[in-house]
Amino acid sequence: YGYSAAEAIGASAELIVPEDKRETLRENLREVGHGNGFVDRDVVHRARDGRRLQLEARVSAVRAPSGELMGALAILSDVSETRQLEAKFRLAFEAAPSGMILVDDDG
């Protein structure tokens, strides 16, 4: 992300979320707060230099032994390049003048 520890420690998660995606962040946090984690959800974050990062998120609620919600654990994978390649492939596939069929190794 490009932030120093001093900038990031104690900062709100909104530091890394673009303004147009903050309501989605709040919805995701509410969902985790109700005890629901989620997997393989695409999210958009923002690097310090303004770049938008496309990420795949896996999030779980972290609870105390008493059941009290203490926070959330998130594993984020940068899928920016993969999503760009998928979009290019989709465009090429849909714009092809001839019909195409996709098959795997088994036919």
Write the SSE topology.
Layout: H1 5-8, H2 22-33, E1 38-46, E2 52-63, E3 69-78, H3 80-95
Spatially, the strands of the biggest sheet line up as 1-2-3
Write down the Rg: 19 Å
- Backbone shape: extended
Oligomer class: single chain
Description:
The chain is of the alpha+beta class. 30% of the residues lie in helices and 29% in strands. The chain has a three-stranded antiparallel β-sheet with strand order 1-2-3, with helices on both faces. Strand 1 (38-46) and strand 2 (52-63) form a beta hairpin. The longest helix is centred in the C-terminal third of the chain and has 16 residues, at 80-95. The model has no long low-confidence stretch (mean pLDDT 87).
In short:
The chain has 107 residues and is of the alpha+beta class. It is built from 3 helices and 3 strands.
Throw out a few tags for this protein.
107 residues; alpha+beta; three-stranded antiparallel sheet; 3 helices; 30% helix; extended
